[in-house]
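Input structure tokens:
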């Protein structure tokens, strides 16, 4: 007969593994930060260059196929850019992309609203998924 403390440990381990799988299923494969590198006033829009750091929180290789910046002020419009880069397990990468967003969206960022990326990922097995990644701002002069 198994010892009760052994069963408790096994039960705890299984619970932790299931919780980790549930988090990844909920879209936590990636985490991200951003820093504004350059801003150009275009009138009602703003061209912004973002320095983005994405971190792969999984235990498998992921390919970032495309990055879209959601403009929440413009009824979900997205400015998509190709971004073919590989992310090793538990590793990160930095990318720099230029986006055009509404002035209202850009101003929301300065008030603490986090920009939302939609990232199209491909697993090592070829499965593609889209995930939302809400970026955390890193101040100028600091590494994202």
């Amino acid at each position: 007969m198994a010892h009760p403390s052994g069963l408790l440990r096994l039960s705890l381990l299984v619970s932790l593994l299931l919780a980790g799988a549930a988090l990844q299923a909920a879209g936590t494969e990636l985490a991200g930060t951003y820093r504004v590198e350059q801003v150009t006033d275009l009138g009602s829009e703003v061209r912004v260059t973002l320095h983005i750091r994405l971190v792969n929180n999984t235990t498998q290789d992921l390919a970032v196929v495309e990055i879209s910046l959601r403009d929440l002020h413009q009824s979900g419009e997205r400015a998509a850019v190709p971004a073919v880069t590989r992310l090793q397990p538990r590793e990160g990468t930095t990318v720099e992309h230029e986006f055009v967003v509404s002035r209202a969206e850009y101003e929301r960022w300065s008030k603490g609203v986090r920009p939302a990326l939609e990232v199209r990922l491909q697993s090592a097995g070829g499965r593609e998924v889209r995930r939302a990644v809400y970026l955390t701002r890193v101040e100028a002069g600091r590494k994202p």
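Strands lie at 30-41, 45-56, 62-71, 77-87, 92-102, 116-123, 128-134, 136-137. The CA atoms of residues 55 and 114 lie 17 Å apart.
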